[in-house]
Write a structure and sequence with these properties.
By secondary structure, the chain is α/β, with parallel strands linked by helices. It has a single domain, classed as Rossmann fold (3-Layer(aba) Sandwich), CATH 3.40.50.1580. The protein is 31% helix and 21% strand. It contains 9 helices and 9 strands. Helix 1 packs across helix 2. The termini are far apart. The structure holds ligand LQZ7MJT6 and guanine (GUN). The site of guanine (GUN) has 15 residues, from strand 5, strand 8 and strand 9. It comes from Gloeophyllum trabeum (strain ATCC 11539 / FP-39264 / Madison 617). Its EC number is 2.4.2.1. Pathway: Purine metabolism; purine nucleoside salvage.
């Protein structure tokens, strides 16, 4: 558990930049692209060249991630051909359900922005609400539905600060040009069209997975996938003027129609001598989420790396 309200003053964040100045070579100190690694996706930083890992514990204001599949370190390095693009990755993020304040959840994004990051690729593991987005699909997020934001749990609540807009528009939160770079990257990697979809991410606080009715509700409200992270980071990044691209890896289904069959019908049919086929009793688990992350880590890594290469070329 960390503090209730993280210090996000320019001076406090600048003290981290001083610390990093003592730990990193000059060429890594001004990353252009940031990556947030979702559950089980820390391998996104596996191919960084000249890689230096800085544990969150060496920095000021960072919490500790307590979720399996999340490390607690920033990885700095170079990606892409020739000299490479300087990049930084969060190996592990903070979730509000761990007991972190929302200002702690978004703090690393603010640090990345002050280091010079202009484009942020945020990844997460998510449950699918749409039969057209099966397990293993990578979903390019084009919009979000944030019930916590609509009900008074918005990470940007608080006194106005001169460096930030008071009323942040979200109609363009998910960068059109970064999403274009992503789909160009998918084409260049010859990924089948079904491998990368598009959709709307529903942010819920967690830590419970959705009840069937909650899943149906979110789907009826227009969400394609659901997860417990990302939206706070998107808001902070947009407030900092950073362009955002979000990739959700579908690790499980939330809405499974057969799960809702009437038990009365089932018993009546059985007694009438015409039993129905067994009704699926599926339960999602974090182990399953991590297993799919591992299975898809290589394609996620390749896609993120190619996208960063294309961003560097201005595609
Ligand atoms: O950090 P992400 O959003 O990738 O993690 C998801 C949401 C929960 O933290 C966890 C549930 O399995 O995975
Ligand atoms: N809320 C939520 N988060 C997830 N993260 C991975 N799968 C899920 C899911 O089904 N629901």
């Amino acid at each position: 558990m960390t503090d209730l309200q993280q210090d996000t003053s320019l001076e406090f964040i600048a003290s981290n930049i001083d610390i990093l100045g003592t730990l990193l070579p000059e060429q890594l100190l001004k990353p252009q692209v940031g990556i947030v690694c979702g559950s089980g996706l820390s391998t996104l930083a596996a191919s960084f060249r000249e890689r230096v890992e800085v544990p969150y514990s060496s920095l000021k204001g960072f919490g500790t991630s307590t979720v399996p599949g999340h490390k607690s370190a920033l990885a700095f390095g170079l990606l892409g051909p020739a000299d490479g693009v300087p990049v930084v990755a969060m190996l592990g993020r903070f979730h509000a359900y761990e007991g972190h304040s929302l200002s702690t959840v978004v703090y690393p994004v603010r640090v990345m922005a002050r280091l010079g990051v202009k484009n942020l690729i945020i990844t997460n593991a998510a449950g699918s609400l749409d039969p057209g987005l099966p397990v293993g699909t990578i979903v390019s997020i084009r919009d979000h539905l944030a019930l916590p934001n609509l009900t008074g749990f918005n990470p940007l609540l608080g006194p106005a600060k001169p460096q930030y807009p008071r009323f942040l528009p979200l109609s363009t939160a998910y960068s059109h040009s970064l999403r274009r770079a992503l789909f160009h990257a998918a084409h260049q990697l010859a990924l089948p069209a079904s491998a990368v979809g598009e959709g709307t991410y529903a942010w819920v606080s967690g830590p419970t997975y959705e009840s069937p009715a909650e899943g149906r509700f979110l789907r009826a409200a227009g969400a394609s996938v659901v997860g417990m992270s990302t939206v706070p980071e998107v808001l902070a990044a947009r407030e900092e003027g950073v362009e955002v691209c979000v990739l959700s890896l579908v690790t499980n289904f939330v809405v499974i129609p057969d799960r809702y069959r009437s038990v009365r019908e089932e018993v009546d049919a059985e007694l009438a001598g015409t039993p129905l086929p067994p009704s699926p009793q599926v339960e999602v688990s974090h182990e399953e989420v991590l297993a799919i992350g591992k299975e898809k880590s290589e394609v996620m890594r390749a896609l993120v790396e190619k996208t960063i290469e294309l961003i560097g070329k201005g595609v």
